[in-house]
Amino acid sequence: MSVFHELEDFGKRIGTDVNRMVQEGKQELEQHVTEHPETLFALLRTVKPVLLIHDIAIVTRYEDVVNVLTNDGAFSVEPYTDKMQSLAGDFILGLNETPEYEHDVSILRLAAPRSDVPKLSEFVAETAEQLVGHAAEADGMVNVADVAKRVPARLIGRWFGTPGPDEDSMIAWTLSMFEDIFVNVKNDPHIHDAAAEASSKLRPYLDEAISGRKRAQAGGETMLDRLIAMQRTPATAFSDHEIATNIIGLVVGFIPTIATATTFAIDALLDRPEAVSSAQAAARSNDIDAVRAHMWEAMRLAPQGPGLLRRAATDFVVGEGTHHATRVAAGTVTFASTESAMLDGDVVDDPDEFRVGRPAHHYLHFGAGLHQCFGRFANEMQIPLIAAALLRRPNFARAEGDQGRLVKQGPYPQSLIVTV
Hints:
The protein is an alpha+beta fold. It has one domain (36-419): CATH 1.10.630.10. The chain has helices spanning 3-14, 18-24, 26-35, 37-47, 62-70, 78-87, 99-111, 117-139, 144-160, 167-183, 189-216, 223-229, 240-252, 255-270, 273-284, 288-301, 338-341, 376-391; strands at 50-53, 56-59, 75-76, 141-143, 308-312, 316-318, 326-328, 333-336, 397-398, 407-409, 412-415, 417-419. The radius of gyration is 22 Å and the shape is globular. Helix content is 57%, strand content 10%. The protein has 18 helices and twelve strands.
């Protein structure tokens, strides 16, 4: 369903003049709402916090969004399951809370423990500095979007042990597959076909990487090495096919999220000179926690995506006990808008202001509940380190003219040029 039809139906339900607005400027309105959904979300939070449109529910208030995302028994991840299985297999992001989920996530936590993150931070910092430095030496300009893709791509090589046949291929494959699984809500066949082609190349590469490491009998501290070592206890370990499936699932969520979140946040910072100044001071004093605080606030105002999909597994009253309590029937696809939740003035003070140091729970960048982002600890490390490599440069600023404008290709940032 298009934004136009959603607004048209919304207008019929609440008796506003939305229909007249739509008829006067259908194309312009749909483009505006697509590019600036916060306008629609603000209206919904006030007038219809839980909007039912046929078999879809749109949830916009903070408490309700968190309730949906943390109530795993009532809301499943089924909207993602078919595409995830088609492109990757039975990966945890497409599994509900089952013994299979618990088994698989336990193995992955052993293979990629949080304790790896500190020792990987030096690699990420050096890689980001190197990429920014090389670009600066060339012409004093850096494409933030390019750096933000290449840092996680290189970390995949170091940490996962699966760099891809080449960096550009790994980036392209993951962007394509992520778009189909998480963004392609209209099931555009062209997007799906491109993702299927990417999957058909990624899995054979991983199959060969697994067999190659096993033939070499090489130990190591990469995720791949650890997963292979676990096969000494086959009853609880992944098979080779399952190793490939789970690495696919992890890498697909790795590059796109880092690239998009970092670039959008830098763009939001650049619109706020005072925020840029304080973020630069933090970066130049190597206060990465302070840089992270600036990036988290920028990501709140310019998130990588508007929210997450769930499907009601049972009849459920969203907002129970409030004036907007709404029964969501079993089977309803439910859109929990984390973007809207982070702008909810009933929870977040002065939500339109850029304010560093907000409570951690105001930020829903990595979701909530059972399927909170598996790699969030690595993301929490990478994003501020990439930002710091840019911010500490002496001439950091948005490039003049169109060069300095954020350009997207589909859902992803393609270009954001800064001087350094």
